[in-house]
């Protein structure tokens, strides 16, 4: 009997998926999604506002409930899976992390822009002090060279991160971009490497496979692909694909499909597909969660979403700068008058 | 006209930029730049300009009876040591570190209230850029909640900010309430590594009761003019947007380029605000007729 290589799936329906429902899942809905994921034996379930702990705001949209309420609801519903949270330094704080730990979070992903790892040092160290698993998460990795990414990944490792993620937050990478980055990071790091895909160019599953072939052992997914922009790798699809490819995810494939179709699908606000605007996110390299904010601004100022996205890409806007969408849309509306 | 003797402790980026601003003051005379590294760029520049320097730390500043106001641009940890020494020596301390020993001061809003306070704190760069806007809204409407987003060029965020980013957001959020007058406050900071570096931009969102758009826009414009009187590169990106109960205001800050590059508007607004506070303190001392230099 051959031993199948273990791949760790982190389901982030209740974090990245929040973008696609404008952070409006109720704690009860979060509980039923978590319970279904737990039954499907997914290894880790990430629960947070789409922009991480403390993300509920005018800038990113107010969530239907507080971080505490979601965590409490989910912690009571899971037995097998580990509960994780996302924290973006500059938005969430160490106080938020302590709160999350007290409400049952066993792991945290500390996410920074691909060039700014050092703003996460305190949070990664605090996670270790709190006895949590700490995972570094380098966003918008497509914007930097593999060498720059490696330098930043090493910083995260030096702070104590047990896994370092290469995140394609804009869904802008081609498989060769993924191989170059994940490959170099894996070769030079002592810790595990992860990959977070977006489906804006319809490459989420393909890129995830490329990452695994290049040494990634942690990969992200969401039920039905629910997430920012065109969404993520669908958890149920990834479970099936990785099984076919000969990897062990520990997941129950049928139950993952049931969770997607019976639990998440009825709660979706719209089908998760590659719309023209989300295609433009990937093409222009813009942060996936800007999608719905861009649609709202386009409507408000009477301009084309695609023009806004191209302009944002040109300005090399990074994750979190949602206020710039208003600025750009307003500027375009003035220019066209 | 008489001038008040002042000193700057901590000749790093902030202290050195502040030096050039203080040199332009008509009410302050810069008597000493104090550091700990004799060869530092800040001390060398001060020497070249004929300003008294010391690399023995704060001691010589405390011992000089002609120095009435001390700008502390060291670090929070060091200022906590300096604060009691300055108080005992009878000096006025303008604290540019995040130590927050004294009350927050934002010149356009409450500097006049604190002219007799012995130790004042300059909040954060994000606070200096956004608290005036929150205050401008809260003087004409009840602000239930205010949120600010400060976007700064990566190059212009020093190690102090990077390694203590929570301190920035938490301090700014507090100042939005305490000085800005919002009932609840939140602050977000984003670092953007784009090249060439972006200039500092700040967005203020306020949730208010029964907003009067015209009144709010007028109040914000007036406040921006007040801030411009001491930060010339401070400007509104567009006229404040008022929709339902939400007010959106965007400003940007181009630095004066005294010592730091113009994209470092975040640092410029700190030193310009500290200098403005020094001016008020000096003016008050001169009116009272003591502490002549």
Keyphrases for this structure?
heterodimer, A: 337 residues, alpha/beta, TIM Barrel, Helicase, Ruva Protein, domain 3, 8-stranded parallel beta barrel, two-stranded parallel ribbon, 10 strands, globular, B: 293 residues, Rossmann fold, Dihydrodipicolinate Reductase, domain 2, 2 domains
What does this 3D model show about the protein?
The complex is a heterodimer of chains A (337) and B (293). Chain A has helices at 16-20, 27-39, 67-75, 94-102, 121-129, 146-159, 175-188, 204-213, 235-244, 253-264, 276-284, 290-301, 305-314, 323-336, and strands at 5-6, 8-14, 44-47, 82-87, 107-113, 133-139, 163-167, 192-196, 218-221, 247-248. With 337 residues, chain A is of the alpha/beta class. Chain A has 2 domains: 5-267, TIM Barrel, CATH 3.20.20; 276-336, Helicase, Ruva Protein, domain 3 (Orthogonal Bundle). In chain A, helix 3 links the parallel strand 3 (44-47) and strand 4. In chain A, helix 2 packs antiparallel against helix 10 (253-264) and helix 6 crosses helix 7. The longest helix of chain A is centred in the middle third of the chain and has 14 residues, at 146-159. Chain B folds into 2 domains: 4-122 and 271-288, NAD(P)-binding Rossmann-like Domain (Rossmann fold, 3-Layer(aba) Sandwich); 125-264, Dihydrodipicolinate Reductase, domain 2 (2-Layer Sandwich). Helices cover 39% and strands 24% of the residues of chain B. Chain B contains 10 helices and 12 strands. By secondary structure, chain B is of the alpha/beta class. The chains are: A alpha/beta (337), B alpha/beta (293).
């Amino acid at each position: 009997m051959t031993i199948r290589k273990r791949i760790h799936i982190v389901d982030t329906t209740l974090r990245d998926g929040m973008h696609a429902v404008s952070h409006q899942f109720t704690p009860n809905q979060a509980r039923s999604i978590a319970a279904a994921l737990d039954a499907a034996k997914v290894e880790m379930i990430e629960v947070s506002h789409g922009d991480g702990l403390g993300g509920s705001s005018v800038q990113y949209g107010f969530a239907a409930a507080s971080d505490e309420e979601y965590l409490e609801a989910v912690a009571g519903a899971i037995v097998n899976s580990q509960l994780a949270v996302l924290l973006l330094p500059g938005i969430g704080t160490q106080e938020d992390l302590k709160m999350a730990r007290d409400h049952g979070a066993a792991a945290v992903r500390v996410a920074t822009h691909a060039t700014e790892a050092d703003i996460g040092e305190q949070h990664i160290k605090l996670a270790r002090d709190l006895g949590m698993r700490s995972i570094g998460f380098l966003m918008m990795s497509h914007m930097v060279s593999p060498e720059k990414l490696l330098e930043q990944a090493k910083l995260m490792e030096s702070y104590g991160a047990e896994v370092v993620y290469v995140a394609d937050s804009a869904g802008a990478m081609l498989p060769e971009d993924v191989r170059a980055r994940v490959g170099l990071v894996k070769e030079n790091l002592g810790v595990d490497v992860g990959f977070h895909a977006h489906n804006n160019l319809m490459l989420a599953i393909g890129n995830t496979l490329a990452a695994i072939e290049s040494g990634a052992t942690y990969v992200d997914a969401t039920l039905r692909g629910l997430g920012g922009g065109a969404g993520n790798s669908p958890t149920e699809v990834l479970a099936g694909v990785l099984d076919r490819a000969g990897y062990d995810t520990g997941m129950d494939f049928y139950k993952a499909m049931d969770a997607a179709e019976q639990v998440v699908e009825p709660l979706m606000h719209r089908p998760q597909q590659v719309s023209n605007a989300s295609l433009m996110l990937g093409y222009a390299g813009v942060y996936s969660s800007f999608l719905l904010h861009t649609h709202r601004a386009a409507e408000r100022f009477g301009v084309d979403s695609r023009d806004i996205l191209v302009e944002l890409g040109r300005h090399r806007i990074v994750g979190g700068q949602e206020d710039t969408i208003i600025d750009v849309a307003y500027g375009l509306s003035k220019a066209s008058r | 006209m008489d001038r008040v003797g002042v000193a700057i402790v901590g000749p790093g980026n902030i202290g050195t930029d502040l030096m050039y601003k203080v040199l332009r003051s008509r009410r302050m005379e810069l008597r000493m730049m104090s550091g700990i590294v004799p060869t530092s760029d800040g001390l060398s520049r001060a020497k070249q300009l004929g300003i008294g320097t010391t690399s023995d730390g704060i001691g010589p500043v405390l011992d000089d009876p002609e120095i009435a106001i001390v700008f502390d641009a060291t670090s929070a940890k060091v200022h906590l040591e300096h604060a009691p020494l300055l108080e005992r020596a009878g000096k006025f301390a303008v604290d540019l570190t995040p130590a927050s020993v004294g009350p927050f001061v934002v010149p356009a809003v409450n500097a006049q209230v604190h002219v007799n306070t012995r130790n004042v704190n300059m909040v954060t760069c994000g606070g200096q850029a956004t608290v005036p806007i929150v205050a401008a809204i809260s003087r004409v409407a009840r602000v239930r909640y205010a949120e600010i987003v400060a976007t700064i060029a990566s190059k212009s965020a020093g190690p102090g900010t990077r390694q203590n980013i929570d301190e920035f957001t938490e301090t700014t959020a507090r100042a939005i309430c305490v000085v800005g007058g919002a009932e609840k406050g939140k602050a977000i900071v984003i670092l953007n590594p784009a090249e060439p570096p972006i200039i500092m931009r700040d967005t203020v969102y306020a949730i208010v009761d029964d907003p009067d758009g015209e009144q709010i826009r007028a109040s914000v414009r007036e406040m921006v003019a007040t801030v411009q009187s001491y930060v010339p590169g401070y400007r509104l990106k567009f006229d404040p947007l008022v929709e339902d109960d939400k007010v959106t205001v965007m400003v940007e800050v181009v630095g004066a380029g005294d010592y730091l590059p113009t994209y470092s508007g975040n640092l410029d607004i700190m030193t310009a605000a500290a200098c403005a506070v020094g001016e008020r303190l000096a003016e008050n001392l001169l009116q009272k007729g003591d502490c002549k230099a």
